[in-house]
Each structure stands twice: as C-alpha cells, then as structure tokens.
UniProtKB/TrEMBL annotation:
Family: In the N-terminal section; belongs to the enoyl-CoA hydratase/isomerase family.
Organism phylogeny: Bacteria, Pseudomonadati, Pseudomonadota, Gammaproteobacteria, Oceanospirillales
Endpoints of the signal sequence: none
Protein name: enoyl-CoA hydratase
Organism listed in the record: Halomonas kalidii
Occurrences of domain 3-hydroxyacyl-CoA dehydrogenase C-terminal (ranges): 198-297
Positions of the 3-hydroxyacyl-CoA dehydrogenase NAD binding domain: 18-196
Whole-protein residues included: 300 to 597 of 725
Length: 298
C-alpha cells in the first residue's frame, strides 16, 4: 500500500451511473449494494435466468430491510429501480464506471473488457472483480489501460466491508480515484494495493488455509481447529470459511498463489500427495455451494 485511499479521492470524478457485467453471485451483490446506496447501475448478463436470479436476490435483501423497519415499501420500490437489468449494451454510452464480474476465465474477461471498452465514453473507468487474474495482464488488450484497475469485492458483497482497488502497471490515478470514490459511495472501505498474486487479503489468507490443510492431513480434527480459531477471536474457523469460499475456488486460487509464492504455498499443494482441500474437491465436497464441505448443509 503506497498511498492511502483517501489521498486519491480528492481528484475523483463522481460515479453517477455505474454498470456491472455479470449478474451472478458477485455481480448481483454489487448491483444490490450500488442501488441500495443510491447509485443507479445497469446489470448486464448474457442469460435471462441469471438476471432473474440476480434481481431475486436483491429483492430478498431489500425485503429484509423492510422487515427490520430500515426501509419503507415505497423506499424499497424506489431503490429497486436503481437496478436496470439488461441483456444488451444499449445504454452503456453514459456509464461512468463499469465493474466486470463475469466468470473467472481470462479469455472471457478479455473478450468482455475489449467489447465494452469500444462502447463506453473515453473517460469511462473499467474495473475487474477478478480474484486471481493479474490486472496488468487484463489491461494488455485494452486501448486505454490507464482507465482500468481492479475492484475486488468479497462475498457476500452486502456484508463484507473491504474492497481492494488494484493498480496495474499502467493504471492511472484518475481510475484509482474514481474507483475509491465509488467504493465509498457504496458504503465500503477501499484500500489501494499493487497488482500481485492474491493482491493483499488472499496473500495473507491462503498461507493460513495451507497451514490448516496441513494440520488436517496430519490428523487434526477440523471442528476443533475451528473452535480454537473462534476462541482466538476470529468470527469463524478455517474449515467453515473454506466451505463459504468453495473448495474448487480455493484450489484454483491456491494454484495461482503457489505460482507467485511457491515457498509460502507448499503446504497447500500437499507436498508429495494431495492436500486435504484437493481431496475435498475430488470427493465433490465443494462447501456451501453444493451443501457439503467440511460441514453438511441442507
Ligand atoms: P458466477 O458464476 O456466479 O457469475 C458469473 C456470471 O457472469 C454468470 O451469471 C454468467 O452468465 C455471466 N457471464 C458470463 N459471460 C458473460 C458475458 N460475456 N457478459 C455478461 N455476463 C456474462 O460467478 P461469481 O462467483 O459471481 O464470480 C464473478 C467474478 O467475481 C469472478 O471473476 C470471480 O473470481 C470474482 N469473485 C468471486 C468471489 C466469490 O466468492 N464468488 C469473490 C470475489 C471475487
């Protein structure tokens, strides 16, 4: 972290209209958060049913606010109109900032980012919510890489306060400033970090998962480890957190981290055999996403 997020904010162009590409777990959450804090957002996907799911989730979250007396039904209806679902790029001409949140596949992300860059204004900021792909690498095919940076939210978006704003090699200050300001307008806490495998949070988190995996391989009871870490003061232990993250996602991110920092990630690669987390994937215990991970969910 070189410059504090607040130092960028002074030069920010305000984001009056945002857009998110992808209406999945993250895209839907980002649309809800933006709408809830008052910034209109276009939510684009390629599948009608994905858009329906994204909207359904937002309606559910707004309804909870009504139940808790934090919103009236009229306010809820008004906030919902801030989300504009779409299957086309028709209205992208006056968007100030785009968050790309499509599937974690470099080829798909490249295609989507170059496509949208050709349709938005010259000053529009493009960002990516990628967890593992280098921001410098994603900027390679863009004609205005200075207008591009990472905007990494955590799942679930409405509950997790932190947003990593990632500077690629060619990212300009205006892109960082607008992204920091938008994160704050969404009620989040942005931090500005340089581009590297795992950015900041996963760089700390994955060696921890590796240490946990090694303990389990050596015979530790995962439930006891969770209880110990809770007593230590963490809101949840590593086994439960891995169930939330998803075992397949963790293995994939672990591989990216191991490439960047082999000395730190050896424990997660499992030495000569397979790591406990890799074995979980082989046994189709992916976590909460398929109702069975370290724990069982119904
Ligand atoms: P997801 O599979 O739930 O959603 C992806 C959505 O993108 C789908 O609805 C899909 O139809 C849509 N899509 C695919 N191609 C598209 C295109 N060309 N245009 C528009 N939409 C398109 O995935 P997710 O979990 O929401 O992850 C999205 C991104 O966020 C990934 O880069 C992931 O690494 C990152 N991320 C995920 C998490 C997490 O915990 N799930 C956390 C942080 C970051």
């Amino acid at each position: 972290v070189k410059k504090k997020a607040g130092q960028y904010e002074k030069q920010a162009r305000p984001v009056k209209q945002a857009a998110v590409l992808g209406a999945g777990i993250m895209g839907g959450g980002i649309a809800y958060q933006s709408a809830s804090r008052g910034t209109p957002i276009l939510m684009k996907d390629i599948k009608e049913d994905a858009i329906e799911l994204g909207l359904k989730e937002s309606r559910k979250l707004f309804a909870k606010q009504v139940e808790r007396g934090k919103l009236t039904t009229e306010q809820m209806a008004e906030k919902l109109t801030n989300i504009r679902p779409t299957l086309s790029y028709g209205d992208f001409g006056n968007v100030d900032l785009v968050v790309e949140a499509v599937v974690e596949n470099p080829g798909v992300k490249d295609a989507v980012l170059t496509e949208v860059e050709g349709l938005v204004g010259e000053e529009t900021i493009l960002t990516s919510n990628t967890s593992t792909i280098s921001i410098t690498r994603l900027a390679q095919n863009l004609s205005r890489p200075e207008n591009f940076c990472g905007m990494h939210f955590f799942n679930p978006v409405h509950r997790m306060p932190l947003v990593e704003v990632i500077r690629g090699e060619k990212t300009g200050d205006a892109a960082v400033a607008a992204t920091v300001a938008y994160a704050r307008a969404m009620g989040k806490t942005p931090i500005v970090v340089n581009d590297c495998p795992g950015f900041l949070v996963n760089r700390v988190l994955f060696p921890y998962f590796g240490g946990f995996s090694q303990l389990v391989e050596q015979g530790a009871d995962f439930q006891r480890v969770d209880k110990v870490m809770e007593k230590f003061g963490w809101p949840m232990g590593p086994a439960y957190l891995l169930d939330v993250v998803g075992m397949d996602t963790a293995v994939h991110a672990g591989e990216v981290m191991a490439e960047g920092f082999p000395e730190r990630m050896a424990s997660m690669a499992g030495g000569n055999g397979k790591s406990a987390i890799q074995l979980m994937v082989e046994n189709e215990r992916l976590g909460q996403k398929n109702d069975k991970g370290f724990y069982a969910y119904e």
